[in-house]
Amino acid sequence: MAESQTPTDKLARRGLMFILSSPSGAGKTTISRMLLEAEDEIKLSVSVTTRPPRPGEIDGVHYYFVDDAEFDRMVEEDDFYEWAHVFGHRYGTPKGRIRNALKDGQDFLFDIDWQGTQQLYQKDQQDVVRVFILPPSIAELERRLRSRGTDAEEVIEARMERARSEISHWDAYDYVVINEDAQACFAKVREILDAERMKRQRQTGLIPFVRELMS
Ligand SMILES: Nc1ncnc2c1ncn2[C@@H]1O[C@H](COP(=O)(O)OP(=O)(O)OP(=O)(O)O)[C@@H](O)[C@H]1O
Ligand SMILES: Nc1nc2c(ncn2[C@@H]2O[C@H](COP(=O)(O)O)[C@@H](O)[C@H]2O)c(=O)[nH]1
To answer: Which residues are in the Guanylate kinase-like domain (predicted)?
Structure first.
């Protein structure tokens, strides 16, 4: 065992489905990327979408970009954990090998909206952790959407129109974090992840460990 490790570092645990949602532009993709860079032990669940790629987005890394016919085929073949209409396009979480990997202790990060969160939570309450990110103000939300420079004016307007209705789902989440400063928000989200990993119910390796301590 490495010197810095304690016996409990090796205990088996179930993986978790760590969901980040927010109104468009509040910063969940930014926080997701910071988390993925800092943490080796969490994988992004790459969604499938019919929306066209933004500049810099890579197929298979940021999304799987498909046409309507391919999305229809995936729905028919029951390939999705969940899917939803968002801003005039369809987005879905492919099943892949998530369920088995969770059993092996693999954590997954989901950047999905409130509809997808509801569907995942209904299917798998024990593994889901729901985090909602709020902008510090509506004016700042609009400034961020514009500063991203990736969307046409009508797209920005549609996202701003939906912002209040998306924010209204804040109380269906386990945690709510305001993203004023990205570093501070990231630090809070990471604390949530760390604490959730330590939940007794997830630490399946505790049972034999405690039995051994008590024997
Ligand atoms: N704390 C912050 N302060 C200032 N700018 C930020 C902050 N967090 C994110 N941004 C910027 O705001 C813009 C929107 O962020 P991001 O793309 O992460 O939002 P999002 O919630 O993922 O949006 P969408 O749902 O549309 O994908 C980006 O240009 C990002 O760099
Ligand atoms: N229900 C789902 N929502 C998803 C999924 N992937 C992304 N999203 C959400 O869509 C909006 C718009 O995303 P954008 O990349 O076009 O800005 C945002 O709220 C995402 O969280 C998914 O698989 N299922």
So the answer is: 15-194
Ligand having the closest approach to the CA of 64: 2
Nearest protein Cα to ligand 2, atom 24: 92
How far, in whole angstroms, is CA 176 from its chain's centroid? Answer: 13
Determine the CATH number of domain 10-45+105-214: 3.40.50.300
Give the 3-state secondary structure of residue 194.
helix
Q: Is 149 annotated as a binding residue?
A: no
Nearest to 160 by CA among 146, 180, 149, 172: 146
In this structure, the residue with its CA closest to atom 15 of ligand 1 is 27
**pLDDT at 43 exceeding the cut of 50:** yes
pTM for the model stands at 0.93
151-182 pLDDT, tens digit per residue, is 889 999 999 999 999 999 999 999 999 999 99
Task: Lay out the sheet containing 80-86: strands in order across.
Answer: 64-65, 48-49, 89-94, 80-86
ipTM reported for the complex, 2 dp: 0.97
**For the chain, which residues make up each domain, given as ranges?**
10-45+105-214
Candidate from 47, 91, 130, 150 with most ligand 2 atoms within 8 A of CB, to mutate: 91
Please report which helix (H) or strand (E) contains residue 35, including its range. helix 28-38
CA distance 104 to 16: 10
Phi and psi angles of residue 45, each rounded to the nearest 5 degrees, phi first: -80, 110
**Among all chains, which residue has been given the structure tokens 């790459």?**
46
The Cα–Cα gap between 162 and 43 comes to: 29
